[in-house]
């Protein structure tokens, strides 16, 4: 079922944002798209193994996060994270190398596709257990409040995760304690093969916030402008000390749940309908037609991104694997921990 | 005439046959109905039994496990599928604090005839959260029974017994075994809970294992045979209650024991077996009991970590030679 929140698309005036912002959105989305296309290709060549979930279709959320959220704001998400990590500024090299399981990856080949982390980017993972990061995000926010910063914690989860009890417990505590947490549901309409409609009577996931009196809104997340504006408004509310805010990003994934899912549970028409709002293509069109940048400038960006992504693959390819002895590092902070090795 | 089936089909036959014979049996879990199961174990069952008895749940393990427990207390026989046991961790409250304790708490008034099933153990480069082995965890809990399958035919018989059992039973499967093909007997086939099976007889050393580590052990036994070492291989089939009689009987013959267990070493199945054997076969042992486990760590992603972490035939052969005091 196609979601109905589209009224604002194309109406947000190009003029209210400068060229740099528009190109920032476009570049971020294009980088994610091209990176993920390479990810799929490399998975096909078995350079990448295990579970692997790509972000294709959801790029506008990454773009909005890049411009609306401060780099010092912590962020935590689930396993569909490559695009978000890139938007946070993790390098394509460190991300691709991680997917390859190489020592130069963002977690030294220890996490793979589902478990990127980067303390420098305040990127708190990378959770493979559906819904587990929701209370963790509230906890990260508690620590920010405790320390007296004006940072907020961006806490992201899927529509499927919204059915976990952890969400309801966390929403309640976060509201009661006025924690600086920005909850973001990335509603791409499916949890594996299960549509939102089949898991609840409540199909508009933003409405869940109402039970906690949490300010909650749906967002047209095929549009980076709408995402950016909604995030800014929510962030302002949270930074003013008012407690949590909850945004339901209405989006879509163009590919299957993971590389092994043929996605037979949805129709071609539905997929095509969403492809007609492809955030990368629509944004490119708006930029060129709105006279924000020339076709040549767009071409230069495309060439640059292509280069960056191929360089990341090359880097990953040439990097060494971690040493197998690293199996016995990072399990405890205690350096001489006595492992059972009999 | 036995038929050749995949392990997933054998499990499906067990569920379907029990659902045909008993109206109170039903299946619930994530993607079990319309998607035909994340690993296609329940393929076609929605078509046969309808949505009243093959139920897709939201991703809400604690909730639907608890709904299973309540239904079991009130006269039904739920089969609760976890996409993998890693996600059953969310449901431990209901499994451990309720399913396992209802009979005791109610002084025998309420039992909980429920099956919790799904794959356990590592399945490739799935990293820390998706690679854990749960036989030891669940077997630690009084009130639960635990079976673990690898043999295609026995999987059917074990699951049927689990569904008919009047106590809660955890059934451990493996993503990597679902496609395995083996013989399944025709007609009613039940494998009793609590009885191990000798898969290979030998006189030199006993190797005990379960689930997909049996494959590792069988490969090791083949290699050892080439060197003239005859291993007796026991598939536990049931973890709790543990059939220590079968192990003791074998050790009395071979005087040596190696346990191969994908669980972590600390307080695991291998530790329990080693205890039982030193207790009941102390005088028959010619060497300390040895074990091969997964490494005492979380399992990171990269390929070489997986190799270093898991038991493999080389590690088993080394352990066997150790208990036999064979050099090289
Ligand atoms: C607790 C738990 N249960 C089940 C799974 C298996 N699983 C992985 S992703 C997924 C679907 C989640 O869908 P959603 O939250 O909508 O996120 P999306 O994949 O669409 O980004 C499921 C069921 C899991 N990883 N963790
Ligand atoms: Mg989803």
Summarize the structure.
The complex is a heterodimer of chains A (342) and B (328). Chain A is an alpha/beta fold and 342 residues long.
Describe the protein in words.
The complex is a heterodimer of chains A (342) and B (328). Helix content of chain A is 41%, strand content 10%. Chain A is built from ten helices and eight strands. Chain A has a single domain, classed as Thiamin diphosphate (ThDP)-binding fold, Pyr/PP domains (Rossmann fold, 3-Layer(aba) Sandwich), CATH 3.40.50. With 342 residues, chain A is α/β, with parallel strands linked by helices. In chain A, the strands form two sheets. Chain A has a six-stranded parallel β-sheet with strand order 2-1-3-4-8-7, sandwiched between helices. In chain A, strands 5-6 form a two-stranded antiparallel ribbon. The termini of chain A are far apart. The longest helix of chain A has 26 residues, at 19-44. Chain B has two domains: 3-184, Thiamin diphosphate (ThDP)-binding fold, Pyr/PP domains (Rossmann fold, 3-Layer(aba) Sandwich); 197-323, 3-Layer(aba) Sandwich (Rossmann fold), CATH 3.40.50.920. A seven-stranded mixed β-sheet of chain B has the order 3-2-4-5-7-6-12, sandwiched between helices. In chain B, helix 1 (7-21) packs parallel to helix 8, helix 3 (61-73) runs parallel beside helix 5 (92-99) and helix 9 (213-226) packs across helix 13 (313-323). The A-B interface holds A 49-51, 101-102, 109-112, 114-115, 127-131, 160-161, 163-165, 191-194, 198-200, 265, 321-324, 326-328, 331, 339-342 and B 30-31, 34-35, 38, 56, 58-60, 62-63, 86-87, 89-90, 124-130, 265-266, 290-291, 293, 295-298, 300-305, 307-309.
